[in-house]
Amino acid sequence: MCSVANNPIPDYSRQPDIHSFSSMRLNVDEPLVLPNGVRIFVIDGGAHDINRIEVAFGGGTFDEVKPMEATLMASMTMHGNTTYSSQDVAEKLDFCGSWFGSRCLDHHTTITLHSLNRCFADILPMFADIVMHPAFPEKEFALTKAKMSSAYRTARDKVKYLANLEASRLFFGESHPLARDITDSHFDAISTDDLRAFHHRYYQPQNCTIVLSGRITREILNLVTDTFAALPAGYGVPEPHAFAINRSDTRFSSLHHPGAVQSGISMFLPAPPRSHSDYIKLRVLIMALGGYFGSRLMSNVREDKGYTYGITASLLGRASCANIAIATECDNAYVSPLIDEVRREIDRLSHEPIPDDELSMVKQFIMSDLAKTLETPFSIASYVDSTLFFGVSPDYFNRQVAEIGSVTPQELMAMAQKYLHADDATIVVVGDNEK
Questions:
Q1: Could you give the CA distance from residue 90 to residue 99 in angstroms, rounded to a whole number?
Q2: Structure pTM?
Q3: How many CB atoms are located within 10 Å of the residue 164 CB?
Q4: Among positive and negative, which fits the CA dihedral 115, 117, 119, 125?
Q5: Which residues of the chain have pLDDT under 70?
Q6: Is 62 helix (H, G, I), strand (E, B) or coil?
Q7: pLDDT for residue 233
Q8: Where are the alpha helices (DSSP H) in 332-376?
Q9: Which domains occur in the chain, in start order?
Q10: What residues have CB less than 8 Å from 253, skipping those under 6 apart?
Q11: Through-space distance between the first and last CA atoms of the chain, rounded to whole angstroms
């Protein structure tokens, strides 16, 4: 029998006390480097005998010869090779309680396996084999293309997607990868030969970083090192493609989308890259503007004015470029007053210091988000992944904790005066102009 006599019942009628976060720190060991160039980060911990291995290769959407070839290639990897058919892969994953995932970023493509420790020795050889030697079967290729093409057609019916696409075109330039308007013709132009060529260019040991996380035993680590150390050393890997931002002089664009019930609104502003000394402080400022439910934009545009169900402001920092993005949807009649209110909130941040109690709330929100990074080996591994993808070191976490904790209202007002200029925003509205 379990006794609870010594555990007092919480008083749920009383609001819990709020305390500031104590110091948080993330220490990540240097990666193991295999003789063929493969790097392996090991994040050991957790209460359960499970693990995750994420294999990342340089080469992503910015490095494609044809749009979507990197994304298609990553997705098709999970459909097997000449040794393991698509059905073999599905059956083994099901039997072992494991699953694959893939994603494609600006300059990286990743393939991920989640597994039970007791099944790892059985499933790792298949995983490594299909990652390094995919076959790209034509039947599965046609089905994958059709599924992705359908998803893009569905997205192109949404005003929010179209507004972001047009804002990206005006802000980054017609030829920039972030401004691509993916259509059926792009999928029609890709063949399995294109996927093989991309795989041949980038999937090489010296271009590979592995993040191994979970309850990592010596046996599991040895299996990973032995498996990937056996890969023959590759050849030269192309340098990542660099794309200059070629911003249009157009600062406002309205696109007609017949039948749209609401209008989609996107606003882009320039920002420094993630490696810049201003980036972390600017992140706090943008969070106050529109990064959480109690933000200024939500309080004004949603709660006070009732123009929209939701509005967000984000600082989108990539390895090579960054921008501030404000996005929402609203009734066609509210487009103009909503944009006016956004401008007003931007201007306020440049002329009025954020009150201490509001800044404290913003800091606590961001610190809570950072604290989630330390919850599990998988969340820590995801953070290590992000440092690879965004071109910063793992110590970036500790820099964020220090700078967010010490930033002042005066510093944030200086950031607003430096970066938040409403008249310089690229603004796009997509909706039914007749309404």
A1: 9
A2: 0.89
A3: 21
A4: positive
A5: 1-10, 18-19, 21-22
A6: helix
A7: 84
A8: 335-351, 356-373
A9: 32-229 (3.30.830.10), 252-431 (3.30.830.10)
A10: 166, 170, 427, 428, 429
A11: 68
